Amino acid sequence: MATIRVTKFYEFEMSHALWNYDGLCKNIHGHSYKLYVTVSGTPIHDIEHKKNGMVIDFSDLKKIVKERIVDRFDHSLMISSRAPHEKLLELEGMYERHHVVDFQPTCENLVLHFVDIIRPLLPVGIKLQRVTLYETANSSAEWDATDNQSS
């Protein structure tokens, strides 16, 4: 049986700041993120099965990523726990959608975070193959299973 890769695309807006960074990104700023999630598997070959011909139903993949990533992080602020975030988040009403994380919220680390979220939620037999996150139109980070065989 042939292995097929299936990709779904998502968009969301999120702001962040890079703690202790030596450039402009140390300031709170936002991005229009574009997220591509690719999974792989063998298409179902059973004419009686409701998902015949599919590796994964696109709606099943959409549900996982939309609920756990897009809906959670869209229009939110993400800051490292190492940053002095307490006073900022005390600004009542300004930051009700915020995430204080134990990592620097770079595009690279966001990709790793998303891999950790998505991978355990995939159905049996479906492998997370690639996660690509565009932070700007010409800047992205990518995790690929072939580069991470032991992870």
Q: CATH fold name, please?
A: Tetrahydropterin Synthase, Chain A
Major sheet: size, sense and barrel closure? Answer: 6 strands, mixed
Terminal Cα separation, in Å? 25 Å
What's the architecture in CATH terms? 2-Layer Sandwich
User: How many distinct helices?
Assistant: 3
What is the overall silhouette?
Answer: elongated
The strand line-up of the biggest sheet is 4-3-1-2-5-6
> What's the average pLDDT?
93
Radius of gyration: 18 Å
How much of the polypeptide forms β-strand, as a percent range? 25-35%
* Domain unit count: 1
Could you estimate the helical fraction of the residues in percent? 10-25%
**Name of the CATH first level:** Alpha Beta
Quick synopsis:
21% of the residues lie in helices and 34% in strands. It is an alpha/beta fold and 151 residues long.
